[in-house]
Amino acid sequence: MDRHSYRDDPAVPAFDDAAPVAVMDAGCAACSWGARIIHRLDRTGRVRICPVQSPLGAALLRHYGLDPDDPASWLFLDEGRAHAGFDAVLHAGRRLGGWGRLAAVLRLLPRPVRGALYRWLARHRYRLFGRADLCALPDPAFRARLLR
Fold it and tell me: Which of 41, 83, 94, 134 has the most crowded CB, counting CB atoms within 10 A?
């Protein structure tokens, strides 16, 4: 899709897209951990986090042909481009720099293997990692990153 294609989609609520946005499951402990990692690594404080369960998060996933109810849906928007699954993790790591670049080790896996591994982990994430409430995290600086 074209950059910023969601801007022309009436189903996607308007939002500030001047900085990257990570769209992730607010009820997943692994996603909650990932959001906290983004918060720690992003020294600029620019990367925003949007729960899949929010109207904006669900609309963005649907816009890109992803199912908000599918546990394999994770999205990272940067400069109007969408990255999903482990590709989103790789792009976020590169964007965040520093320790975030360690995610590049995933590039050693061929894309089909990365995709299959991501889908398997996503489908079993509650059993493997448990549940958490991303939006209940008490850190005010973290809460300021949340888009709803």
Answer: 134
Residue 148 within any structural domain of the chain: no
Q: Would you place residue 62 in the very low, low, confident or very high pLDDT band (cuts 50, 70, 90)?
A: very high
List, for residues 21-38, the tens digit of each pLDDT value: 999 888 777 778 788 888
Q: What is the dihedral of CA 103, 41, 47, 2, to 10 degrees?
A: -20
- DSSP line for 26-88: TTBHHHHHHHHHHHHH-TT---EEEETTSHHHHHHHHHTT--TT-TT--EEEETTEEEEHHHH
C-alpha count within 13 angstroms, C-beta hemisphere, residue 130: 6
Is residue 16 assigned to a domain? yes
Pairing mode, if any, of strands 81-84 and 21-24? unpaired
Structural domain count, the chain:
1
Structural domain span for residue 135: 5-143
